[in-house]
TrEMBL record:
Membrane topology summary: Single-pass membrane protein
InterPro entries assigned to the protein according to its UniProt record, in alphabetical order: PA_dom_sf (IPR046450), PA_domain (IPR003137), Znf_RING (IPR001841), Znf_RING/FYVE/PHD (IPR013083)
Official protein name in the record: Ring finger protein 148
Record Pfam families: PA, zf-RING_2
Compartments reported by the entry: Membrane
Occurrences of domain RING-type (ranges): 268-309
Keywords, ordered alphabetically: Membrane, Metal-binding, Signal, Transmembrane, Transmembrane helix, Zinc, Zinc-finger
Signal sequence coordinates: 1-46
Transmembrane regions listed in the UniProt entry: 203-222
Primary location: membrane
Molecular functions (GO terms): zinc ion binding
GO cellular component: membrane
Metal-binding as UniProt keyword: yes
Organism: Sarcophilus harrisii
Length: 315
């Protein structure tokens, strides 16, 4: 009997491994299927949804910063065309451009420009027409506060050939604050990917059933004790190592006379504010410094210097 115990233990471990693998495979398949269903939901008019790639460029001090992301969606009635220009805000405190007399701080007459407008107060059609009548080559509308970076294809019939896209509130407010500080921001809008809805109103019951099934499955899995995977343990270890590395980086409190507090000196590239006396800064191993309150969350998320991409775990 004792001779068979190792074999029984081995078979038990093998069975446990196969069961865990099957559960992981089923969970992964259901998750992918549910995401596919969500992405496939039709909009209100059943039209295809086109994403928008935004190539954003601006200058801070002597540094030119660029970022490219699929951060917007084209409006339902927008031409699917590339458009580029300097980003311009409506003049005054109200940023929704609902007043027909709204003016924009336009650049040189020969320069292409894009209007950045807040959602709300009037229809999308009205906002786009106001900007177009002032000469905008394109319109970027950012969503309500509290919606994060959620977007949807706008309905704006009768706006002609003006390119119109929606971006999330977080990205819109980031651009808004940059421009308010006098930063020259340019954006190139390009056509992204096409999402073709395949569901229709007659089979929405299928989606409801599948959504309920997925929810029940994940509720069942959540109630079962699970052993963290090797990848999860690895991520936890890396996060702990990053926290430890951050704690070992040099801290310094700026004071009057330091070269960093010179009004003509560099600013923090994370928040774009200038350094002031009594600011606490953290100095990375690559000798770049930033506000402690800015760089600590950045390092937890990215692990690298925002300027030179130096990895704090590899130094």
């Amino acid at each position: 009997m004792t001779v068979n115990q190792p074999n029984q233990a081995y078979r038990g471990m093998r069975l446990f491994g196969m069961t865990s693998w099957k559960q992981s495979f089923a969970s992964s398949w259901l998750l992918r299927f549910s995401i596919f269903l969500l992405l496939s939901l039709p909009d209100s008019e059943g039209k295809a949804i086109w994403t928008a790639h935004l190539n954003i460029t601006f200058q801070v001090g002597n540094r030119i910063i660029s970022e490219l992301g699929e951060t917007g969606v084209f409006g339902n009635h927008s031409p699917l065309e590339k458009v580029a220009g300097v980003v311009v805000l409506p003049e005054g405190w109200n940023q929704n451009a609902c007043n027909p007399m709204t003016n924009f701080s336009r650049p040189e007459p020969t320069e292409s420009w894009l209007a950045l407008i807040e959602r709300g107060g009037c229809t999308f059609t009205h906002k786009i027409k106001v900007a177009a009548e002032k000469g905008a080559n394109g319109v970027i509308i950012y969503n309500y506060p509290g919606t994060g970076n959620k977007v949807f294809p706008m309905s704006h019939q009768g706006t002609g050939t003006v390119v119109a896209v929606m971006i999330g509130n977080l990205k819109g407010m980031e651009l808004f604050h940059l421009i308010q500080k006098g930063v020259h921001v340019t954006i190139i809008i390009e056509v992204g990917r096409r999402h073709i809805p395949w569901l229709n109103h007659h089979i929405m019951s299928l989606f409801t059933f599948m959504a309920a099934t997925v929810a029940c499955f994940f509720l069942y899995c959540a109630r079962r004790p699970r052993i963290p995977s090797a990848a999860t343990r690895r991520r936890r270890q890396i996060k702990a190592d990053v926290k430890k590395a951050i704690g070992e980086l040099e801290l310094r409190v700026l004071k009057e006379g330091d070269k960093e507090v010179d009004p003509n000196g560099d600013s923090c590239v994370v928040c774009f504010d200038i350094y002031k006396p009594k600011d606490t800064v953290r100095i990375l191993t690559c000798k770049h410094l930033f506000h402690k309150a800015c760089i600590d969350p950045w390092l937890l998320a990215h692990r690298t210097c925002p300027m030179c991409k130096c990895d704090i775990l590899k130094v």
